[in-house]
Design brief:
alpha/beta, Aminopeptidase, two-stranded antiparallel ribbon, 9 helices
Length: 276
């Protein structure tokens, strides 16, 4: 852990490959570790072979409001070339919880690692209440087997703590970057070893597919890609329209059937003691 923080940014394999930057958080709420670090380091090792189609850069973050965003920005500036995608990892529930949108709101029940608490505070004054994330999640979702897809949660609520704060600022200030956020099983989950192993295997597939899709030619013009400025849809009616549009693609139709809009019930809310 100390070595990772001293380096600030750990990179694997040659820079000539498309870079995917993965951020993760430090231990929170008196925990001995943060499982997002475990998952991030494992992904870097698995995707660090010569045969891997991507290069991984790791970015460690502190679980502190606004500071985590600034650290993500610093990691980006240290890269020698633009990343094809940035994936933020954090802890939440005991499932792999894949975020589709972020909200312009900080609301804490307990403090962050600097003792900061916030009460119904806008992250960026005057900015949109909700932003759809801009990574190719539909294609990443469809890289998984049906069984794997059944074991992930498609979430329309990333919480209102440091994870959401960081993801919202990245999505707002770096709208040109394909940024997404995924919550991995928290450090205190039962059967953590098995849950973590499963999450790493699924994320390896998802990240590889996402980077490959973004590096290739456009396939679906109304879904996020390097050739457009499209974000993931956040409204129920928009999502229903996409579901009808892709009804001949079994997996994409399944994705749009499962995903929820910001104007629907906030699902998969997470306990403040676990989220970051």
């Amino acid at each position: 852990m100390k070595l990772l923080f001293l380096l600030t940014l750990v990179t694997y394999v040659a820079w000539s490959k498309p870079i995917v930057m993965i951020s993760y958080f430090d231990a929170f709420h008196r925990a001995s570790f943060n499982n997002s670090e475990t998952v991030a380091v494992a992904l870097a090792q698995k995707l660090g072979s010569d045969s891997s189609p991507v290069s991984i850069a790791l970015c460690p973050l502190n679980t502190i409001f606004d500071q985590a965003y600034a650290q993500t920005e610093t990691c980006l500036k240290k890269l020698s070339q633009r990343p094809v995608m940035v994936v933020g990892l954090g802890e939440s529930s005991c499932d792999l919880k894949v975020e589709t949108m972020v909200r312009n709101n900080d609301q804490t029940v307990g403090p962050d690692n600097a003792g900061i608490q916030r009460s119904d505070t806008s992250i960026i004054a005057g900015a949109p209440l909700v932003l759809g994330l801009r990574y190719p999640l539909p294609q990443m979702y469809c890289a998984l087997t049906r069984s794997e897809r059944n074991n992930i949660e498609l979430s329309n609520f990333a919480g209102s703590f440091v994870c959401n704060n960081t993801a919202y600022q990245m999505s707002y200030y770096y709208s040109d970057i394909h940024y997404g956020f995924i919550h991995v099983p928290a450090n205190n989950c039962t059967n953590l070893t098995g849950r973590t192993k499963s999450s790493i295997l699924m994320l390896e597939k998802m990240i590889t597919q996402g980077a490959t899709y973004l590096s290739g030619e456009l396939s679906e013009e109304d879904l996020p890609h390097t050739s457009n400025e499209v974000r993931l849809s956040v409204k129920k009616n928009e999502i229903k329209k996409l579901r009808r549009q892709y009804q001949e693609n079994e997996c994409l139709e399944e994705y749009f059937k499962r995903v929820k809009g910001d104007d629907e019930k906030r699902i998969f809310q997470i306990r403040p003691a676990l989220m970051n």
